[in-house]
């Protein structure tokens, strides 16, 4: 069995990055996994647009597809971090840009949800997924 590594660029309204305002949150577009994917990692990046200060962190979550439970439309996803899977806290005061690679559960599709905890600075987020396929 040959194993392949495929990179999936996470997009935010079709862009490769998203500036998240202080105290705000943003969800990426839905990213689909290959049908033969069996493992995945995601690299997360947070870049502070100002001089970082204490508390300038971004919490990142995976919002996994719930499928189409009511059969009425497309896949449904959790709306926010309350039902997402916590992936990492990126601290731009410690490292700017802050970058982390973490395990990502394989599902039909996923959205990456970024929650900016900074009180006054916008933070630009981006991500890419590496899936292993058979």
Explain this structure to me?
This protein has 134 residues and is mostly beta strands. The chain has one domain: GOLD domain (Jelly Rolls), CATH 2.60.120. The strands form 2 sheets. Strands 1, 2, 5, 8 and 10 form a 5-stranded antiparallel β-sheet that branches. Strands 3, 4, 6, 7 and 9 form a 5-stranded antiparallel β-sheet that branches. The model has no long low-confidence stretch (mean pLDDT 94).
Q: Could you tell me the radius of gyration in angstroms?
A: 15 Å
The amount of beta strand, in percent, is over 45%
What is the N-to-C succession of helices and strands? EEEEEEEEEE
What is the CATH class name? Mainly Beta
Overall structural class, as computed from helix and strand content, comes to: mainly beta
Helix content: under 10%
Determine the oligomeric state from the structure: single chain
Short description:
This protein has strands at residues 4-9, 18-20, 25-27, 31-32, 37-48, 57-64, 85-91, 98-103, 109-116, 123-133. The chain is an all-beta fold and 134 residues long.
